[in-house]
Design goal:
By secondary structure, the protein is of the alpha+beta class. The protein has 3 helices and 9 strands. The protein has one domain: Peptide methionine sulfoxide reductase (Metal Binding Protein, Guanine Nucleotide Exchange Factor, Chain A). It has a 6-stranded antiparallel beta sheet. The chain has a 3-stranded antiparallel beta sheet with strand order 2-1-9, with no helix packed on it. The longest helix has 9 residues, at 3-11. It is globular and about 40 Å long. The termini are far apart. The model is unreliable at 1-18 (pLDDT under 50). It is an enzyme of class 1 (oxidoreductase).
Length: 158
């Protein structure tokens, strides 16, 4: 295992699952392709990652509002959960209760914790624990901007 992989392994948390998850939103692959851009599909449905420091919400720091899933519009994170981590992706110390599901991810020769939308299973990113950020949970939800859409209201996303 590489040094970087070892670091990610050391600081990640995981919740292993024994069976494929089912989600309330049961759209087919063709239905997802019809509503998502190719890049959104690659990240949300194929577990891709956008390049660091390129996402719309990396430096976005509102004082109120909600970040929703870009696929199904489920509310995921409150603006108050967001913090500056410097990692190149939006970072949150917590999610809206029940909005995000965690899965063990053993890709690329390391063990990490993938986070997905609890409503549609769309890939959001990964969560890391114990990195020393001064947050209430000692967690960093590292999320792809393209997996999100922001609303400055507590209702619907844009």
């Amino acid at each position: 295992m590489s040094f970087f992989g070892g670091l990610l392994n050391r600081f990640s948390t995981y919740a292993p699952t024994s069976a494929p998850m089912e989600y309330p939103d049961t759209r087919t692959e063709d239905e997802w392709r019809a509503i998502l851009s190719p890049e959104q599909f690659r990240i949300l449905r194929r577990k891709g990652t956008e390049a660091a420091f390129t996402g719309e919400y990396d430096k976005h720091k509102p004082t109120s509002g909600v970040y929703h899933c870009a696929g199904c519009n489920a509310p995921l994170y409150k603006a108050e959960h967001k913090f500056t981590s410097g990692c190149g992706w939006p970072a949150y110390f917590d999610c809206i209760p029940g909005a995000v599901t965690r899965h063990e991810d053993r890709s690329f020769g390391m063990t990490r914790t993938e986070i997905v939308c609890s409503n549609c299973g769309g890939h959001l990113g990964h969560v890391f624990k114990g990195e020393g950020y001064p947050t209430p949970t000692d967690e960093r939800h590292c999320v792809n901007s393209i997996s999100l859409k922001f609303s400055n209201k507590n209702g619907e996303g844009k």
